Amino acid sequence: MATAEPAYLYLATTGRRTAARREIEIWFTRHAGRYYLVAEHGERAQWVQNVRAESRVEVRIGADRFPARGRVVPADEADLVRNVQRLSRAKYGWGDGLVVELSPLPA
Asked: Rounded to whole angstroms, how far apart are CA atoms 28 and 6?
C-alpha cells in the first residue's frame, strides 16, 4: 500500500545576519527530481532572503533528511515557473508567488 506524500517539507536555512539555523514548514511539489516551494510574499520572505545569501540548505520530508542547493527560479524560466505553480495549484489549490527550487546534493 503506497503512503500519501506529506503535505509539508521542513526547510532549514542559515540566517543571513545571525548565521543561526532557521527551519520552516512549507508546502512543496516535486518535479524532475527537484523540490519546489512557492513564496507567497516573494523576496520579502525571510527564508527566501536566507536562500539567496547561502544557497546550501537542509531539507526534511518525513523521516528523510538531505542537503540541497536552493535557488530562486528567475522570471526568464517562465515555463518552469508556470509548471511549478500549476503543480502547486493541483496539490494545494494555491500556487501564486515566487518559485524556489531545491536540488538535492550528494550526502
From this structure: 9
Cell numbers at residue 9, please?
517539507
Tens of pLDDT, residue by residue over 30-54, are 999 999 999 999 999 999 999 999 9
Q: Are 8 and 27 in contact (CB under 8 A)?
A: yes
The single-letter code of the amino acid at 43 is: E
> Using an 8 Å Cβ cutoff, are 61 and 37 in contact?
no
Of 88, 16, 17, 26, nearest to 56 by C-alpha is 16
Residues of the chain with pLDDT under 70: 1-3
| Whole-number Cα distances in Å, 107 to 49, 70, 74, 79, 102 | 24, 15, 27, 30, 14
**What ranges make up the beta strands (E) of the chain?**
8-14, 21-27, 29-31, 34-39, 56-61, 64-72, 98-104
